[in-house]
Amino acid sequence: MQKRTSLKRIRGKHITVVGLARSGVGTANLLAELGADVTVTDMKTTENLEVFTSQLSPGVKLALGAHPDDIFLSADMIVVSPGVPLNITPLSLAKSRGIPIIGEVELAYQTAVIGFDDPPVPPFVKGDGGFLAVTGTNGKSTTTALLDSMMKQGGFNTVLGGNIGNALTGEIFSQMTESKEQKTDFFVAEISSFQLEAIQNFRPKGAALLNITPDHLDRYRSLEEYGAAKARIFENQGEGDSLVLNRDDPETMNVERVKLKAKNAKQRTVYFSRREEVEGVYLKDGRVYCNVPDAAPVPCKALLLGADEIRMKGVHNLENAMAAAAMALLAGCPVEAVIDSLKQFPGLEHRLEPVRELGGVRYINDSKGTNTGAVVKSLESFSNPIILIAGGRDKAGDFSLLRDAVKQRVKTLVLIGEAGGKISKALGDLTETVQAASLKEAVEISRDLAGRGDIVLLSPACASFDMFEDFADRGRQFKKIVMELK
Questions:
Q1: Matching CATH number, 14-99, of 3.40.50.720, 3.40.50.1980, 3.10.20.30, 3.40.50.300
Q2: What is the separation of C-alpha 211 from the centre of its chain, rounded to a whole number of angstroms?
Q3: Is the link from the previous residue into 214 a cis peptide, with omega within 30 of 0?
C-alpha cells in the first residue's frame, strides 16, 4: 500500500495533474492558487481541449497529446483526474519511484477539511462539519442533489460538487478567490468508484452506499473489484461518523460484511429499505418511516410522509429519497426540511424525466440509465406496456440480467448503437425486437408501434459515446426528436 500523503506544505512543489477536463481544471487552478508549480498532461491534443485550456490560471504549464515520462518522474506529487486509470505506464513508473499519487477528491478533502501550513490555509468547513458523500452504481446524482436540497432547506451552508458535474477542487478554488467569509457546514458530494480509487485520508462525516450492480466492467476485472472500490467511501470513517446502506441490495450487504465488520469500524451504520423495518428509513404499507434512535432530530419510528407524497416517482427514486433522508437526519437536518424537500424536489434531468404525451403515449427520458441495474429499476417503475429504446457503447455489461424485467414489462425492444446486436442476442427471443440506425429512427419506430396507454422509454443500459457526446447529449437529442413528433 502506498504511503499516505501529507499536504501540509504545498508552496513551491512541482505537481503534475493528469487529465484535463472539469476535475483537471479545478485541480490545476487550486494548486496554482496555493503556490505550486503545476503541469497538466493529457493524451488529447490542444485542439480537442480548448474549452478547458481557456479556463486555466496563468502559469499552469501544459503537456498535451502525450504523457512524457519526465513530468511524472520529476514531480513532487501527482494528482490524477477520475477518468484516468491508475495503471497507465507513467503512473506505474512514478509509483515505483515512491512519488506520491492522489486523486482530485483527496486534494479537495485535505484542502477543505484539514487545511495547510504553507501557505497558511485554514479548513473551509466549520465546527463538526465535513463531507456528506454518496456513492453507488445508480441514483448517486439524484440522492446527492436531494440531500443538498434538504440541508440547504434546513439552514445549512452547503457546497454541492463531485461527480454530479462540479469539480470539488473547482468549488474550493472559487471560494478561495472570492474571499468568502462564511464557512461551509458541509460539502455534499457525489463520489464515483473512479474517484474513490485514489483516496488516502478522505473521511466523510456522512457516507451512503446506495447499491452495487454490474457497471464499468471494462475498467474493473470483476464485480467484486468494483464493489471494493465503492466500499472505500467508508474505509477511513470512525467514531462520530455515519454510514447509510441499502439493506435490500445483496452486493451492498456483502460489502458491509466483508469490508466493514472485518475492520471493526466504529461509525454509526443505519439502513434504508423498501422491504423491511430497519434502523434507519424504511417503507411500510405505503408510508415512509424513520427509525434512527439517539442519532437524529426525530423520535423513534416516526412517520415522515406517505410514499405518494414524494414528488419524484419510480421505485429507484423512492430508494434515493429514503437514503437522502437518512443522511440528512443523521447530519442534524430538521425533519420538517427533510419532508418539505421530499414533497418539492422534482428530480434531475435525464432520469425518468417525462418529456411529452402524444396520442395517449407517454415518452420518458432515462438517458442516465447506462447500466442494467438502472434499467431494471426504471422498468419496475411502470405498469403500462413499454417500448424500450436501448443500446449504445457496451461497458462489458451482462444484458441477460434484464431478461426477467423485459419479459414482464417490455412490449417491444428498439435497439441502437454498437451494442444493439449483443442486446438482441441476449433479449431478442423475449419480445418483438427491432434495430434502428439512429435515435431519430428509433423514436419514429416507437411512435408507429405504440398504442394508447403505452410508454416509450429511452433507458439505454449502455454508455453514449458511440453516437453522442455523453448521456446528457443523448437525452437532449431524444427530447428534441420527441417534441418534433406529429
A1: 3.40.50.720
A2: 11
A3: no
- The closest of 57, 63, 51, 53 to 34, measured between CA atoms, is 57
Question: What three-state secondary structure class fits 404?
Answer: helix
**Residue type for 466, please?**
D
> Which phi and psi (to 5°) does residue 87 adopt?
-100, 15
- What is the per-residue pLDDT for 71? 96
Beta bridge partners of 135: 209
Alpha-carbon distance 188 to 160, whole Å?
A: 5
The second-level CATH assignment, the architecture, of 107-344 is 3-Layer(aba) Sandwich (3.40)
CA distance 411 to 243: 40
The Cα–Cα gap between 226 and 207 comes to 18
Strands 101-103 and 158-162: unpaired
Each as own residue / partner, the long-range contacts of residues 123-127 (CB below 8 Å, 24 or more positions apart, any chain) are 124/172, 124/175, 124/183, 124/184, 124/187, 125/183, 125/184, 125/185, 125/186, 125/187, 126/183, 126/184, 126/185, 127/185
Q: Is the pTM of this model over 0.70?
A: yes
Boundaries of every domain in the chain: 14-99, 107-344, 353-483
Distances (CA, A) of 480 to 78, 350, 446, 476, 484: 42, 13, 15, 6, 6
Confidence grade of residue 262 (pLDDT, cut at 50, 70, 90): very low
Q: Which helix (H) or strand (E) holds 243?
A: strand 242-246
Give me 252's grid cell.
451492498
Strands, sheet with 101-103, edge to edge from the N-terminal-most edge strand: 61-64, 37-42, 14-18, 77-80, 101-103
Q: Are 379 and 459 in contact (CB under 8 A)?
A: yes
Distance, in Å, from the CA atom of 418 to the CA atom of 188, rounded to the nearest integer, reads: 36
What is the strand order of the sheet 455-458 is part of? 353-358, 361-365, 455-458, 386-391, 410-416, 432-435
8 Å CB contact between 103 and 79: yes
The pLDDT value recorded for residue 257 is 62
Q: Looking at the structure, give the CATH architecture of the domain made up of residues 353-483.
A: Alpha-Beta Complex (3.90)
Residue carrying the nine cell digits 436501448: 390
Q: Are strands 280-284 and 287-291 parallel, antiparallel or unpaired?
A: antiparallel
